[in-house]
Amino acid sequence: MRWTAIALGCGALVLAGCGTDGSTQSVQVDSGQAAVSSEFRVSQAEIADDVALVLSGQGLPPGEPPAGLAGLTTERVVRDRLVSSYAEGNGIELTRTQVEQSLEQLASANGGEEALNNLALQSGIPPQALDEYVRTDLLVTAIGQKLDAAGDEAAQLEAARAALSEYSAAIDVEVSPRYGTWDDAQLQIVPGSELSTPDSGEQATS
Predict the structure, then answer these.
(1) Rounded Cα gap, residues 176 and 30, in angstroms
(2) Domain segments of the chain: what residues?
(3) What does the pLDDT read at residue 14?
(4) FRET pair for 124, CA 20 to 30 Å: which of 14, 75, 115, 159?
């Protein structure tokens, strides 16, 4: 997948015009939130649910996630929301058929649906989130094509990354200090001095 594997180098599934008026509203992460912005919020309960799905899929006991899994989950979900928000604000849409076809191609390239699901779990992604993962990748491609229609794939990907970085800063994306800080330029979480035990207490309920 170009978005995660090439654009961001996030190590997830390595398989085979800004929509704001420029105004920002300062946001703060409260105890029940994993991430916030002026356009979207990600609850700790949502992250806990995804972590629980990964643990179940890996056959691990609940409440004992690998170190860093909740932070990586938060990073993935924030990217999904960021890309979706930007696309919506700029009139970029996908059909359900596009997502389904891309997911089928991804499964075919990786030995089938079961093999793809196992690969996702190994990467800390619940199979239930693969639709959104694929959708994000397709949206990034569409964003790049809209911003640099004459460019090659690398130029389009860079155009999308730059636009999303600018948008991330404009909507003031913040993550819970337990994970670190959100880096708008890299579009990822950077662990910081405030980082506590990454996954302790992540089984919170809503």
Answers:
(1) 8
(2) 33-190
(3) 38
(4) 159
